[in-house]
Amino acid sequence: MNDSAEINALIQHFLERDKYALARIITLVENDPDAARAIISRIYTHSHKSYIIGLTGSPGAGKSSLINSLTTFITSQGYTVGIISVDPSSPYTGGAFLGDRVRMRENILNSKVYIRSVASRGSTGGLAIAIYDITSVFDAFGFDFIIIETVGAGQSEVDIFQLAYTIILVTEPGLGDSVQVQKAGILEIADILVINKSDLGGDFLKVNLNMMLESYKPKSGWHPPIVRTIATEGVGAAELFQTILAHKNHLEVNGLLEEKRRHAIRTQVQNLIESILLKTMAQKFALPENMDKIMEEVCSGSKDVYTAILGFLQPILDRLDHL
Amino acid sequence: MGKKIRFLMAKPGLDGHDRGAKVVCMALRDAGIEVIYTGLHQTPDQIVNAAVQEDVDFIGLSILSGAHMTLVPRVIQLAKEKNIGDRFILAGGTIVLPEEIAELKKLGVKEVFGPGSPTKKIVDYIFSLAKA
Predict the structure, then answer these.
(1) So what CATH class is B23-131?
(2) pLDDT for residue A127 is more than 60
């Protein structure tokens, strides 16, 4: 749907806080770069400075359930929440099973809540660029809080946390040992640690986490607290929200919130420029057509991969020198 | 890159049998479709709300409880009220009586896939609708 009259009508309804329009606009920015450009340029002045929370952790730790119980509490305090739930796309088929909503049933009909399931769509090592746009759209719509939930604890998820202001890492008792959490490499970027399923234990895990946290330099005076929750029962939701607000306050008071916003924008700008350049250049220099030749040289063993690539690239690099 | 098909798989009502629905979900995922599964015991309200927010192209209603002649029309009605009456609605489960199938199709269900439907048939049908 590229009809600009239709897009204009949608934007109109969107600015009137119509959720149907919000849904349609998200689809457009997710799938159509031209529409994304048109829409973002029209709505960006409507930013409400939504507060962005990022949530990650191992599959099964209870992220979605926690978001559900946290959202229930946040909305009970009068705020609105927009949730972006990211699940992985199949690297083979490109399809995805997006099942996070199953844990959020209490909030499906909550008028203060909007939930959107998003497939990662094969973003290699970086946030799907679309998620920046979706977050901007949520912000323009006016949610007080935006919660972005991401898949497990892989290194590629680190990029997602260049976007959020408060990062919550969700763990559960009995996941093996402290090494598991440590390997994640994510521990040091977490602002708040949650031990969910606290009805099953967690004292030992808490001790371990505290020990590990002590070995990290505190980020600008903030010592990541550990919050115990039982997400399915709403236990700990209030405490978690208070902790988030405390972190938000810490960022604001120390001028760090603005810094984070700039960082998020910088990451998006960098990603976008590189992505557009890459696509344009690959096309302009006929990479697809040359791919077979390069493949043949490497697979047959007549050239090593670097020599083969440079055979194609060097003339281009030389031309760039003369730009 | 073409637009991905988004499919909402819903289980309305008290029916607790979701194995079939999950099998279909996986088949759709394997065919490159983004499937949003909303879990058991959904009300028509919840289903339509989710469909609006997720901006899906298809709503799949899986019902094995026999309550389909009550639940499906309610979903269709609500979908129209919420402006998504143009999305494709498919039904499955144990809806087998020809007269009921005919009635559902008259109300707006595009196709009914009863027990034994090959998942490939479902996938092909979805793509044929999406391309049109």
Answers:
(1) alpha beta
(2) no
Contacts of B31 in chain A (CB under 8 A): 93, 95
Cβ–Cβ gap B3/A31 under 8 Å: yes
Structure ipTM over 0.90, yes or no: yes
- Within 13 Å and on the Cβ side, how many CA atoms surround A66? 34
- Over residues A70-87, mean pLDDT: 96
Terminal-residue alpha carbon distance, chain A:
38
* Alpha carbon distance A321, A318 (integer Å): 5
Question: How far is it, in rounded angstroms, from Cα A8 to Cα A38?
Answer: 10
Q: Residues A50, A82: contact at Cβ < 8 Å?
A: yes
Q: Which residues of A touch B (CB under 8 A)?
A: 19-20, 22-24, 26-27, 31-32, 89-90, 93-99, 101-102, 105, 108-109, 114-117, 119, 121
> What pairs with residue A84 in β-bridges?
A116, A148
- Distance between CA A49 and CA A71 in Å, rounded? 18
Could you read off the pLDDT of A146-196 as tens digits, one per residue? 999 987 544 454 466 778 999 999 988 876 655 556 655 567 788 999 999
Condensed to tens digits (0 to 9), the pLDDT of residues B93-120 reads 988 899 999 999 999 999 999 999 999 9
d(CA B49, CA A23): 11
Contact A176, A111 (CB under 8 A): no
In chain A, the domains with their CATH numbers are: 1-44 (no CATH), 47-256 (3.40.50.300), 271-321 (no CATH)
Whether residue A68 contacts residue A106, with contact meaning beta carbons closer than 8 Å, is answered with yes
Residue with the bigger pLDDT between A217 and A67: it is A67
Please tell me the predicted confidence (pLDDT) of residue A214.
80
